[in-house]
Write a structure and sequence with these properties.
Layout: H1 2-10, H2 19-67, E1 70-71, H3 72-75, H4 84-91, E2 95-103, E3 106-116, E4 123-131, E5 134-139, E6 146-151, E7 154-159, H5 168-174, H6 181-190, H7 209-232, H8 244-251, E8 256-259, E9 265-269, E10 286-290, E11 296-301, H9 308-312, E12 314-315
Length: 316
Amino acid sequence: MDNKNNQTENNPTSNLPGGDNQNHSRQKLFWIGGIIVLAILAIVGGVLFMVFSHNTCEKDVGIMVNKLCMPKEKLFKIKAGSSLAEVRKNLGHALHHEFTILYENEEYSLVGCLVNAGQADSNFNQWMLFRNDILVNFLDWVPYEMEEIPYEGTTWRRPKPWNIEDMSRIKKVLSAPRKTLNEVNVYSDYTQSDERVKGEPAKIMLPFLLYARTMCGKIKRDYQINWKLLGRYDGCLVKIGMPIKEVDKLYGKPLQKFSTKDEYMVRIYGDTRHLGIDPQYKFSDIAVVFNKEGKAIKVLSHTFFNEKWLSAATQE
């Protein structure tokens, strides 16, 4: 009897109708509330982690991109008479090869570099022409010959495909007027654009955070791969007169090969992986033309490389 009274005193709701059920409901609500709080904390923590990871990845990619685009102040330190080796050493992967050709018993090499004029999205491509490995000219972009293609009742323009023997665009480069660094500076001032709105990169919609994190990781890997390919497939490494075996040793087994109408041999080197990066930073496949003695006489890459040569060639 005393035990019963003690239980009643300790648990006064037990004498009320449904008292035990009320206690059980309260405990259940307590546990549910705790689970909800933990879930919210987990979600918030996950979101913060993904945002941090995305920002870190974006920063890493930005570091690589900055190395592929030099400030214009660095360009103005390059003087006529500099050697190609000196310029390559100073600019690193920001420098890309366009062509190397033997013309009128002299070796010409055209290289380009992506230059930042000082603000966001104000990049421009500056060409430099070397004769016998000595810088002789800064020059403007020489456009492609264009063609119009019918499309759904209208037309659109695209670069006209060219044969590997075609010298017309190369001759325009070789005969282009000399451009001074002051003219380059004036042009760079015109390319400057409005800066990105402050805080814009942080405007990420919540449902796409996980996707953005995944994609950023892939993009970072692609830029890392591209960085290595830029060093490997550099057309400046091939010199006029280099034999096929040495070029193969330099670049590895060619992707494809074919012969010209003059029975010159063409070998295409590169990598078939698709990289999801900005095209202006992407490495280029390389076409090397060899004479009948197996010596290199022409090297073409970037804007002087025609993608149609890949499909027209026969795979080795």
